[in-house]
Amino acid sequence: MVADGNASDRGLRLAAVLLGLAGIFDAVAGAADLSGARYVSVADGAVHEHDLTGWAWLHLAVGVFTALAGALGPLRRRWSTSLALAAVVIFVGLHLFFLTYHPIRTVLVLGLALAAARLLIINRSRAVA
């Protein structure tokens, strides 16, 4: 049987990996969007071009912040868990606005981030002040 401390450590490490993967994936996708083609839409017989450079920079910054918060998550400190949960909230909020442009990517990274948040919340009570 596994000791309770080891199970808690494994949960925090898994949360860190999931959050780190979501952050890295988002940062890479944000960097790719910076050099990618523009988005266009056709409405009322006209073609509209959308510049999403600001969103791409925001995804890059939030992705790096989320990956960093994921790396600090397993420290078993309340502040590191709170930082990781705050990163998840910001991450989810940003992706809900961007859902229409990248629905598949959004669903994938939100699954990773929300699974990490669940693990962090479960193990939060075991964190040291």
Automatic annotation (TrEMBL):
Pfam families membership: DUF7144
Residues in DUF7144 domain copies: 13-122
Keyword 4Fe-4S: no
Annotated keywords: Membrane, Transmembrane, Transmembrane helix
Segments traversing the membrane: 55-72, 79-98, 104-121
InterPro entries assigned: DUF7144
Name assigned to this protein: DUF7144 domain-containing protein
Source organism of this protein record: Micromonospora chalcea
